[in-house]
């Protein structure tokens, strides 16, 4: 019991050291721009269809599900505002982050894990390429910057999904729908949610890389690295979300 | 290199559209809060703002024209409210406009309403002050409702006592309503009275033709005629007076109209000058 607790703390401590190394390496050249752009493309652009579909469905379903309750109170006109508010504040960031954790974190974990197992990382070190700089920094940075953009897409597409959901039961002009949404939005809804997503992105990339980088030798551990990367990243996203929401609640 | 450019433009497009969405969101929310575009400020003092908050809408003729920017306590019975409003509505808000606080529906947010004044033609200045009208508070309504409910209680008590005595008492009214015998006797009495008065009028006719009383009646008739003539004369005089007064009034009205037209013309000139 105590041993496993100690193991958990060791793991957390090592992740923290790994993250600390990232902040040191980000500012030290050489900058791997080409690799960074490639990772941005893989992480951002390639995840877009997945995020778009989930965003659309979340908007649609949220509208349909919350409609009966609001109709009961005769507050059907608040539906667009409510859907947009919950999408932008909470649902789009968290769902997008979870999807990314499933797609990106596991991908990075498996990729780096197999590189580690086949001793490619060691080979890089021998050939005087800093593997941390080339593999980890680029991926984590790409994740940190791409996840927020994916969330913007999810917001926009989710709102369109909400519009479709409203038009299933009623008939609302798109312009009127948008004005209703904008009327209910404030900067306080947009900014904390956006800042939150940077942390989500960072954690997704960082945990994937850490799990891959520390895979022990053997083919088996590649699968383990991918698996535990997804689990840990998803859990961390919820923990960060809780902390972020409490901080926002505290200050505003 | 070809391979790289193959994904670079896609990445660029992805990032650009994402950022454009974000900027658009910021712009529209900012526009909603009147952060962009030209605005002007108005202040107003209230005794109580009844839950008005920074960011609530300001309405003029039912249109959202701005938001509440600041709410400050000046002293223990005065609150200063600063409003930020769109510049294009400034020309419609005159110096004697009044601000009042109401609520948007039963459960909705508080709304600050600006009502136009009646007389002033002067446009309000930036950072100008307008008067306020204290809204009706819920507890005021409750007070008056309580008063009328109390009154109703007293009245209903009295009605209860009255109807009870009507049903169970032995007074004249109660018996009139309830008692058959009483009703019969009343109608008998009335019949008797009728026949009595008929007899009396016959007696009177007889008295008129009696020679002892004839002189007295003739005198009375003569006096009546005189009075009628006097009344007629008085009425004619009154008519003449009324006609004179009417003429005077018409004259005054004409003068007033002329004055108003002159004023209007002057205002139009002023407005044109201002436009220029």
From TrEMBL, chain A:
It is found in: Membrane. It comes from Flavobacterium nitrogenifigens. One of its GO terms (molecular function) is phospholipid transporter activity. Keywords: Membrane, Transmembrane, Transmembrane helix, Transport. It comes from the Bacteria. It is a multi-pass membrane protein. Belongs to the MlaE permease family. The chain crosses the membrane at residues 48-66, 78-101, 140-166, 193-213, 225-247. Pfam families: MlaE. This is Phospholipid/cholesterol/gamma-HCH transport system permease protein. GO terms for cellular component: ATP-binding cassette (ABC) transporter complex. The lineage of its organism: Bacteria, Pseudomonadati, Bacteroidota, Flavobacteriia, Flavobacteriales.
From TrEMBL, chain B:
This is Phospholipid/cholesterol/gamma-HCH transport system substrate-binding protein. InterPro entries: Mce/MlaD, MlaD_Phospholipid_Transporter. PANTHER family: INTERMEMBRANE PHOSPHOLIPID TRANSPORT SYSTEM BINDING PROTEIN MLAD, INTERMEMBRANE PHOSPHOLIPID TRANSPORT SYSTEM BINDING PROTEIN MLAD-RELATED. Pfam families: MlaD. Residues 222-276 are annotated as: Disordered. The chain crosses the membrane at residues 12-30. Residues 41-117 form the Mce/MlaD domain. Keywords: Membrane, Transmembrane, Transmembrane helix.
């Amino acid at each position: 019991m105590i041993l496993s607790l100690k193991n958990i703390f060791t793991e957390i401590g090592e992740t923290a050291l790994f993250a600390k190394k990232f902040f040191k390496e980000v500012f030290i050249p050489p900058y791997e721009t080409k690799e960074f752009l490639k990772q941005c493309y893989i992480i951002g652009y390639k995840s877009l269809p997945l995020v778009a579909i989930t965003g659309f469905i979340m908007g649609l379903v949220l509208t349909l599900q919350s409609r009966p309750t609001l109709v009961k109170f005769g507050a059907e006109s608040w539906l667009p505002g409510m859907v947009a508010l919950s999408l932008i504040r909470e649902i789009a960031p968290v769902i997008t982050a979870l999807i990314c954790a499933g797609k990106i974190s596991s991908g990075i974990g498996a990729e780096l894990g197999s590189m580690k197992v086949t001793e490619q990382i060691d080979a890089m070190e021998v050939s005087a390429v800093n593997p941390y700089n080339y593999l980890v920094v680029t991926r984590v940075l790409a994740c940190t910057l791409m996840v927020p953009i994916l969330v913007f897409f999810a917001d926009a597409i989710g709102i369109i999904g909400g519009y479709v959901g409203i038009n299933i039961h009623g008939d609302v002009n798109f312009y009127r729908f948008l004005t209703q949404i904008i009327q209910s939005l404030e900067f306080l809804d947009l900014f904390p949610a956006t800042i939150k997503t940077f942390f989500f992105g960072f954690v997704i990339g960082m945990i994937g890389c850490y799990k891959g980088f520390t895979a022990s030798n053997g083919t088996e551990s590649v699968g383990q690295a991918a698996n535990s990367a997804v689990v840990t990243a998803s859990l961390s996203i919820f923990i960060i979300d809780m902390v972020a929401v409490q901080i926002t609640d505290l200050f505003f | 290199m070809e391979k790289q450019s193959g994904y670079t433009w896609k990445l660029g497009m992805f990032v650009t559209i994402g950022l454009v969405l974000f900027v658009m969101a910021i712009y529209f929310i900012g526009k909603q809060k009147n952060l962009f575009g030209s605005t002007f400020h108005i202040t107003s003092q209230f005794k109580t703002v009844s839950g008005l908050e920074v960011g609530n809408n300001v309405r003029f003729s039912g249109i959202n024209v701005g938001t509440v920017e600041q709410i400050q306590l000046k002293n223990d019975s005065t609150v200063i409210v600063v409003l930020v409003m769109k510049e294009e509505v400034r020309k419609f808000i005159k110096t004697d406009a009044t601000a009042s606080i109401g609520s948007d529906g039963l459960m909705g947010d508080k709304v600050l309403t600006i009502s136009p004044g009646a007389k002033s033609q002067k446009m309000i200045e930036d950072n100008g002050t307008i008067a306020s009208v204290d809204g009706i508070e819920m507890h005021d309504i409750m007070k008056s409702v309580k008063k009328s409910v109390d009154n109703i209680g007293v009245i209903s008590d009295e009605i209860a006592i009255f109807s009870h005595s009507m049903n169970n008492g032995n007074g004249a009214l109660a018996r009139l309503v309830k008692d058959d015998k009483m009703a019969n006797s009343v109608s008998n009495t009335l019949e008797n009275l009728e026949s009595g008065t008929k007899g009396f009028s016959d007696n009177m006719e007889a008295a008129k033709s009696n020679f002892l009383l004839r002189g007295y009646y003739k005198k009375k008739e003569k006096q009546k005629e005189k009075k009628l003539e006097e009344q007629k004369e008085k009425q004619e005089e009154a008519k003449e007076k009324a006609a004179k007064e009417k003429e005077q009034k018409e004259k005054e009205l004409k003068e007033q109209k002329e004055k108003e037209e002159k004023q209007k013309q002057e205002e139009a000139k002023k407005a044109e000058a201002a436009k220029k």
